[in-house]
Design goal:
326 residues; mainly alpha; globular; repeat
């Protein structure tokens, strides 16, 4: 049996009585490994979760059109089919998730080192759950800049038919066109609003991502810590426990920040030039507090397989690449 244990930048390979110590992995190489693993994990996550993500966005933005999650799913499937309906926006979603997760996980490794330095912890593997949570909070600052533009395009494509039903076109841009593609929509936003148009909803995205990833990584690392056996590394708990920990992290994220996600979707899809506070208060006054949780059920159901897949691919890609480079 082979046991891989990464500590203080060195890998110890134990097989029987053999004990070989490898040289430390340099920071740049480890950052590239994290970046690659995060990219593959993000791509896998999209194809597992996109249909329920589409339902979530539609319920958040046009709650008056659907009775519940199942009604939205069935109507979308019957009206628009699988590719143009349930998987609408999947191309920008893949780009968004690859961009976000590659930067997020690369930054997370760096932020873990920064937090460990501040907390005077010699090895990042010995960081507390709170330390890992703060590292996730800081890492999300960097990933938000890559996520906001691509997620804006994704959300608009997902709600294309509803936008057309309500207005025929959005603010004179013709976004309600039936044959709209990610490239056409990107071009229209650039022509009508310029680069700032891609960052509409940036503040609400920050307010969603940074607290969300505090709970995300805190929940993930905390669950791995609870599930490991005495003397066992968190990296060696196995695929099923890793997937379960990822699912816990995802559910913790969405349940903690969902109102901010509803506000972000409204701002981005409806081209609102208002603060997230004013939009949030308007939703509360006109639709009630529960409107800030429209789409929560499909989000929770979506995130369980999605984040389980994300962390499974991430952790095992890292192990595979590290193994190939030894």
């Amino acid at each position: 049996m082979e046991i891989w244990n990464w500590e203080r930048g060195r890998a110890h390979h134990n097989k029987g009585s053999e004990n070989v110590t490898f040289l430390p992995r340099d920071k740049l190489t480890q950052g590239i490994i994290d970046f690659t693993a995060g990219s593959l994990g993000g791509a896998a996550q999209v194809y597992v979760s996109q249909p329920l993500d589409t339902v979530k966005v539609k319920q958040q933005t046009f709650p008056q059109l659907y009775k519940n999650m199942f009604d939205c799913f069935i109507k979308t499937y019957r009206t628009d089919g699988i590719y143009r309906g349930l998987y609408a926006g999947s191309i920008p979603a893949v780009i968004a998730n690859v961009a976000e997760n590659s930067v997020l996980f690369a930054a997370y490794g760096g932020c873990q080192k920064a937090v460990a330095y501040v907390m005077k912890v010699e090895d990042t593997k010995n960081l507390s759950i709170l330390g890992n949570a703060f590292a996730g909070f800081l890492a999300a600052f960097f990933s938000t800049f890559t996520l906001c533009p691509t997620e804006l395009v994704k959300c608009k494509l997902q709600a294309l038919r509803e936008m057309k039903q309500q207005a025929g076109k959005i603010n004179g841009t013709g976004i309600g066109e039936a044959n709209m593609t990610p490239w056409k929509l990107t071009k229209q936003i650039m022509e009508t609003e310029g680069i700032p148009g891609f960052f509409r909803g940036l503040t609400s995205t920050f307010m969603r991502e940074m607290p969300g990833y505090f709970f995300f990584f805190g929940g993930y690392e905390g669950t791995r810590e609870l599930m490991r056996k005495p003397g066992q590394s968190k990296d060696d708990i196995g695929a099923l426990k890793t997937m379960f920990a990822g699912a816990v992290g995802g559910v913790t994220l969405w349940t903690s920040i969902f109102p901010a996600d509803v506000i972000k979707s409204r701002i981005q899809i409806n081209n609102l030039k208002r603060s997230m506070t004013s939009v949030g208060l308007e939703i509360f006054r006109t639709e009630g507090i529960l409107a800030l949780y429209n789409g929560l059920l499909p989000s929770v159901l979506r995130t369980i397989p999605a984040t389980a897949t994300l962390f499974l691919v991430y952790e095992y890609t890292k192990k595979a690449i590290n193994g190939l480079l030894l």
